[in-house]
Amino acid sequence: MNFIDFELRGEYITLDALLKATGLADNGGAAKAMVAAGKVQVNGQQELRKTCKVRATQVVSVAGTRIRVIAGRGEAGVPEAGN
Questions:
Q1: How confident is the model over 60-71, as a mean pLDDT?
Q2: pTM of structure
């Protein structure tokens, strides 16, 4: 199993955008097809909504890879540098 830590830059990222950003899908159409085919899980549950909002602390699983979504600097209680 491969593991990826993805640092969130805002409050959330859509599921299809996350698959594309991590390189698990070549493009948005491929990402949407993966989700529609039932190949993606969020926190262990199958997710069929292509634009599901994925937030910090959630784990996305697809094709033998787990993506752990972590809060970026200044998000969800993580102090920014210098504070």
A1: 96
A2: 0.84
C-alpha to C-alpha distance for 73 and 62, rounded to whole angstroms:
26
Under a CB-based contact definition with an 8 Å cutoff, are residues 53 and 12 in contact?
A: yes
Tokens standing for residue 18 = 């996350």
Domains of the chain and any CATH numbers? 2-71 (3.10.290.10)
**What backbone phi and psi angles, to 5 degrees, belong to 77?**
85, 5
DSSP codes joined into one string, 17-57? HHHHHTTSSSSHHHHHHHHHTT-EEETTEE---TTPEE-TT
Sign of CA dihedral 26, 32, 36, 38: positive
Tell me the pLDDT tens digit for each residue of 27-64: 999 999 999 999 999 999 999 999 999 999 999 999 99
Match 């909504």 to its residue by tokens.
Answer: 49
